[in-house]
Amino acid sequence: DDLVDACLDILGPLDVLDTTRSGLKNYAAKYGELSWGSDDASAQFDDAAVAIIQLIVTTQEYQTA
């Protein structure tokens, strides 16, 4: 949840529909708990953040902002 909210803030801040936010959070959940505790964990965090940002910029809310 925090990752999605942070990405939305970085790109906007951007208000999105509840259904969009829910979809983004469901997608982000597949990455599990993220941290920067090791190089591998940091790389996974980076991958997750990039994926979420890529999804956000394809949303109608972002395109029409």
Description:
By secondary structure, the protein is an all-alpha fold. It has one domain (2-63). 66% of the residues lie in helices and 0% in strands. The protein contains 4 helices and no strands. α1 (2-10) crosses α3.
The stretches of 5 or more residues where confidence is low (pLDDT under 50) are none
Number of helices: 4
Beta-strand fraction estimate? under 5%
The coarse overall form would be elongated
Q: Determine Rg (CA atoms, Å).
A: 12 Å
Give the SSE order as H and E letters: HHHH
**Integer count of domains:** 1
Mean pLDDT: 93
Distance between the termini: 22 Å
Helix amount: 55-70%
Class inferred from helices and paired strands: mainly alpha
User: Describe the biggest sheet?
Assistant: none
In short:
By secondary structure, the protein is an all-alpha fold. The chain has helices at residues 2-10, 18-29, 39-56, 60-63.
Write the layout of secondary structure elements.
Blueprint: H1 2-10, H2 18-29, H3 39-56, H4 60-63
Defining traits:
mainly alpha; elongated; 4 helices; 66% helix; 65 residues
